[in-house]
Amino acid sequence: MTDRLRAGNPLWMAYEYLAMVIGLGSLAVLCLIWLPCALILNFLLPRRLAQPLGRAVISWGFRFYLRILTVFCACRFDLDEIDRLREQGPLIVAANHPSLLDAVMIVSRLPNAVCVMKAALMDNLLFGAAARLARYIRNDAALDIILGARDELQQGAHLVIFPEGSRTLNFPVDTCSPSVGLIASRCKVDIQTLLIEFSTPYLGKAWPLFRRPELPLSCRVRLGRRFPPPTNVQAFATELDTYFQFEFGQKLRSTVAFAV
After folding, report:
1. Could you tell me if 179 and 173 are in contact, meaning their C-beta atoms sit under 8 angstroms apart?
2. How far apart are the first and last CA of the chain?
3. Crossing angle between the packed helical segments 10-44 and 47-72, to the nearest 10 degrees
4. What is the rounded average pLDDT of the residues 205-225?
5. Domains plus CATH for the chain?
6. What is the pLDDT of residues 52-81, one digit of tens each?
7. Can you count the helices (H) and strands (E) in the chain?
8. SS3 of 45-73
């Protein structure tokens, strides 16, 4: 069925609503299945065992979840380029943040990834136990973020962070904050950018959680430029912002040219 035939088709719209329920519901079910295990293991296991186990389960679970979206929800994911980072570390992985699916896609391919998470999510009943078992980093104190990031990077982890600070409001990318440059400068670790492309801004900041998706949904993650640790954090924030704006500006121009 072509895009023109899908638009306004009541059966296709019904399928999009069904796909939304399957997508959100399956994620909740997977989290609930792992929740009691994560709570118990958090209590029983020492950090040296809990951390790799927690990260491996999250990575595998996210990969399985993306497979569900592919099979049942007309989603297409092109994530192969992320695999090239798997044996490279330590690295700060900095990506634009157009959707709630961004961390899911990245972590599904990087089993030793550690995310900088909002404190509210770390305390969330559904996600918190798994995040704490994996020793993800809370974002509520700048010094704790830097110290936590330093410890993880010294152990060869991939530190996943979104320079925009929150999901993109002005799709496909918003202004970058100095946080990534500050961490890289203090930890002396390179920054590998990822460029996340969505066919629509589904589950972005301006997309309500229960608004149906526009299917099929295409998602692609490209490896971007790798930056050395900056010496001037503020100048680097401007440089990184310019780089993201250029990359996505080029993409939008090429898409428009192709359409014409």
Report:
1. no
2. 22
3. 170
4. 94
5. 3-259 (3.40.1130)
6. 999 999 999 999 999 999 999 999 999 999
7. 9, 7
8. CCHHHHHHHHHHHHHHHHHHHHHHHHHHC
